[in-house]
Amino acid sequence: MLCRFEIHTRTMASTLRTQKVALRKAMRGLLATLSTDEIQAQSHQIARTLLALPEFQQSKNISCFLSMPAGEVDTSAVVSAIIASGKNLYVPKTTDKEQGIMDFFRIFGEEDLRALPRGLWGIREPDPEYMGQQRPTALSGSSEPLDLIVMPGVAFDRSLSRLGYGKGYYDRFLASYSAMLQGRQQQLRPRLVAVALREQILEAGQVPVGETDWRVDVIVGPDGIVES
Hints:
Shape: globular
Radius of gyration: 18 Å
Distance between the termini: 44 Å
Number of strands: 12
Number of helices: 6
């Protein structure tokens, strides 16, 4: 027999899931109305602001997602700028779909980037090997610690809450990566920088979050940045 606390906890979790599903549906409908030209124009402004951030300029090892063909910020200019500036680029790849696990894999230049095959949702993903050797990854400990992670999402709000796509990939990665860094006695975690279209940035408190949901440090939009 369930106690009152367990019933309350399950009810809260169910309500949170319902709120997230509803917001994702509403946001996807809204984003579907944006033209390619509008998304590209906003993405251009977002890239300019992101590349000018001091934390971006001071970072050596940066992870950035490779954007879907439509419906979100186009990050192609950002990833090219990371490579051109001599920084180390890492991109996400699903390593266990059943468990919802991903890692960040090192990309070795523009030619390597252009050759990446498309995987889930039409997103380009690296093969685990490059030139006959295993690619360095964030979770394997075979690379230097990440300084900054550029994150996607369905919606964000001005309290820096993030609503992801519903699979929990980033939340699980950040929990695992933070635990690994603590095990190495490294106190600084990567700076979490979200990029968002104007329509994806809501007022504070409008994005439902739970205990395992990570907030970001900065949101970069076409009209500037949001930070605490």
